[in-house]
Amino acid sequence: MRSLYLAVVGQAIQSTFGLYGSAKTHYTYKDVEVANVIGIIPGVDEDLQDSAIIIGAHLGHVGENKDGTYQPGALDNASGVAAMMEIAGTLQAAGFSRQVHCLYCF
Known about the structure:
Elements: H1 2-17, E1 22-29, E2 32-41, E3 52-56, E4 62-64, E5 70-72, H2 74-93, E6 101-105
Parallel strand pairs: 3-6
Antiparallel strand pairs: 1-2, 2-6, 4-5
């Protein structure tokens, strides 16, 4: 069940960054396939193509109560992810010109 929720969130994040480029890394942990999502918004300065600002948050907490019901990590995880998505969207909408690449890592 946990991997289902994480997959849905990962797909939503990846689709948000799909216009700018994104990468998804799959791996298996304790028999559960999981993925990291990296949103890439390219920088414009040709001399700084090897430089990047990395902004990170984690999706990983999808807990389970003792009775087996789903327990999301809304306060910790979802708030950080929401803040990162808002930062990326606001900068893009404002036409903010980044000199270096911005990597949003989840």
